Amino acid sequence: MEKQEKSLFSFLNTATARFILVGILTLLLLIPLEFVRQLISERKHRQQEVIAEVNDKWGEEVIIYGPILKVPYKVYSETIIVDQNNETTKQRNSTTKYAYFFPETLSNSIDINTKSLKRGNYQSIVYSGGVTCNGNYLHPDFSDINTQDNAIEWEKATLLIRTTNLKNITKEVQINLNGKSYTLESQYSGDDYGNMQTLSSGYLDSSLFSSKKPKDFSFSIQYNGSKSIRLVPIGKTTEVHLTSNWHSPSFTGEFLPNDETKEISESGFSADWKILNLNRPFGQSFFENLPDLMEYSFGVDFIIPNDEYQQNERTAKYGLMVISLTFLVFFMIQAINKIHVHIVQYVMIGIALVLFYTLLLSISEHSSFNFAYLIAATGIITMISLYSITVLKVKKFALFVGSSLTCIYTFIFIIIQMENYALLAGSIGLFIILALVMYFSRKIDWANN
């Protein structure tokens, strides 16, 4: 029995046993790390709630397409009526349907001026901007449904614009068609989809359609909006020129801008699109119903790239790596130089390493992420380095610990700043670290140390 106790005591004093205990402690520290990650998620969710509230008051995302020429026409049918004397009569009935025609050419010029609105620790990117459109229509062609001219109600033709965010249009909207202006009014339409709403011109001058010459139009809309602005390419040829002072656009939707003319800088960006009717799966006219075309929209999202919560989340994902590497540094010093480090001291160091993430989160909410990372990392490195003087008894070992932690935190910072090469840089860095550990641990006697 005494031999077994001595054997167990001898094993607990070996490097192998200490390594196992440190490994168990590292896994246990995943619990507070998970709490930290949940805290980051809660703060991020709160940010999204505040942004949604701010955007609702300032203006939501903008999706727009138009103008669309809407022309009613009559469809006639006959009903045979049999009376009590078995005599038949024919009754002619008429039903009003609608045809929708898209422009032949459509040119859009969009100028967006963004700014940041803050509420507490949170900020939202909003914008004020104008959409100016011009183009022309060909004479409406009803040949696809073989309708006679006297069935077309030209005097009831209207122009429609489909858009979102009606409540944050800042100026009256007028459309000029062949030199005559029409004021657009909000109109309820039973075939509106999602958040799309309809602006209507009222009845057009029927004399416009007495000639089959192309008809020019132009209009502009001023919005307060947020998140994004998108358009649907309803012109047979659609051209868009978009400029903004926002420095980090995210182009989205079915069509991307031309690479040859796209320019992005710290002062803003400009982008151009040219889309032909061959590039989209719908034609220039619809009869009876106008379908939902939002899925063919394109434009730009105004996002904050790598905001502090995204960067905090990415940093926290490397928490296990930071704790493991830090413990490895202490363990290697302990094993090579035969210095006793108590498991409680590892616990203190582990708690300090977890504290780094709460410091980083709280400071980054009041300043830039880079500054918060510098302050939090400097504080933790200094605290652990000073503590290691007591633990390791030798100042040069404490200096080595401080240098190692500086390298670790610098390595993590470089990785989270990368996007395309983060995995490559991380893999190479871990390969180098493993090679160094294998080199310095080659003479450790795991059984007797």
Describe the 3D structure.
The chain has about 450 residues and is of the alpha+beta class. The protein folds into 2 domains: about 1-50 and about 310-440, no CATH class; about 60-305, no CATH class. The chain has 9 helices and 17 strands. The chain has helices spanning about 1-10, 15-30, 30-60, 310-315, 320-335, 345-365, 370-390, 395-415, 420-440; strands spanning about 60-80, 90-100, 105-120, 120-135, 160-165, 175, 180-185, 185, 195-200, 215-225, 230, 235-245, 250-255, 265, 270-275, 285, 300.
In short:
The protein is α+β, with helices and mostly antiparallel strands and 449 residues long. The protein has helices at residues 2-12, 15-28, 30-58, 308-317, 319-337, 343-364, 369-392, 395-417, 422-440; strands at 62-82, 88-101, 105-119, 122-137, 158-163, 174-177, 180-183, 185-187, 197-200, 215-226, 228-231, 237-244, 249-253, 263-265, 268-276, 285-287, 298-302. The chain has 9 helices and 17 strands.
Low-confidence stretches: 1-6
Indicate how many domains the architecture comprises: 2
The termini sit apart by 24 Å
User: Radius of gyration in whole Å, from Cα?
Assistant: 35 Å
| Class derived from helix and strand content | alpha+beta
Work out the helix count. 9
SS elements, strand count: 17
InterPro entries: Uncharacterised_IM_CreD
Keywords: Membrane, Transmembrane, Transmembrane helix
Organism: Wandonia haliotis
Transmembrane segments: 15-36, 318-337, 343-364, 371-391, 397-416, 421-440
Key words describing this protein structure:
8-stranded mixed β-sheet; about 450 residues; disordered N terminus; 2 domains; transmembrane; about 40% helix; 9-stranded mixed β-sheet; alpha+beta; Cell envelope integrity protein CreD
